[in-house]
Specification:
mainly beta; single chain; 3-stranded parallel beta sheet; Immunoglobulin-like
Length: about 325
Amino acid sequence: MSTKPFNSVGGYSVGDESVSNVILANGDITTTNLTTTGIANLGNVGNVVISGGNANYLLQTDGSGNLTWTAPAATLTVYESNANAGNISNTTSNVSGILFDRDSGFQVYDIGNSNVLISLGSTFKTWIVDGQPNLVAQGEDEVQFIAGNNLIITTSNVPNPPTQLYKYIRFDADVHYVSNGTSNIDLPTANGNINFSVDGSANIAIITSTGIVANTIEVGDIYSKRNSIAVTSNTVIDSFGVAEYRSAKYSIRASDDTGYQAVEVLLIHNDINSYITIYGSLSMTGNDLVTLSSTINGSNVELLATGVGANTLVNLIGLYVPD
C-alpha cells in the first residue's frame, strides 16, 4: 500500500490502498479497502457505488468511523378525526414529535422499552360544592345537573351575550310555585312586602315584620315571645298607634320578691283619652303587685305599670282590634 496522494483520470483497480488525499476527476476506482488521512474528493455522487444494503437504506456511523446499512426511520402522519363519523382533517405529514397539552388533561408516562403511555386526566379541576363531597373528574367523566323542587335549570349552546365565547348554565329558584300539600318556604331577609298568589282553594297568610295578616288563623296554643320588663314607676309595658287599633285586651303576668299575679285588662280609646278596666285578677299574695293605667302620648296609646314591691317584672300578651 502507498501513502502518496492519489489522482485518477481513468479506470483504476486496487486491492487495499492507503493514501493521504483522494481526488477523483473521472473514471472508476475499484477497491476493497480505501483509507485516506486527508481530503476525499470523489466528485459527483454518481461516481460512488457501495455494495450491500437494501433500497432506501441509510449509512449509519457508530462514532468510530465504522459504517453500517440501517433502515430509515418511518415517517409519521397525524390526522384529526371524528372517531364516530370517520371524518379526517388537518393532516400533518413528516411529524418528528407530538406534544400533549397538559392543561387539557393529557398525561405522558415513560413505561420503558421505548414505550410511553398517554392518558387523559381531568379536563376540569375539582368542583367544590358547599356542604357536599368534592367532585373529581376521572377521564372523560360527565357532569349531570339535576333540578330539585322549585329549581329551574336553563342551558344554552349560544353564547350569552353573543359577544362572549362561553356557553352557560343558569339556575333559577321558583319561589312562586308550591306543589300540592303542606310546604314550608324559607325566604331570605328582605325589605318591603313579600306577596304570594294562590291558585285554587289554598289558604294563605301574609307575614310581615310586625305580624301575620290573614282572614283566619287556626292555632292550638298562643305563646308570648316578649321579654319581661323591669317595672318601677309608670313604666310603659305596651304601646300601639292611635290610628292602628281602637281597643286591646291584655293577659299580664307580674312578679316581685313576694310572689306572682295574673291580670286581665281591657283598653279602649277615643283618639284623645284612653281607658282601662281590670276584669280579672289572681294574686298569690292576696294583694296587687302592680297598678295599671293608660294614656295617649303623641300618636301612641300606652299601657303603664307601677311596681308595688321590689324587683317587679311584667310580661304580657295582647290582642288588638282596629275600627
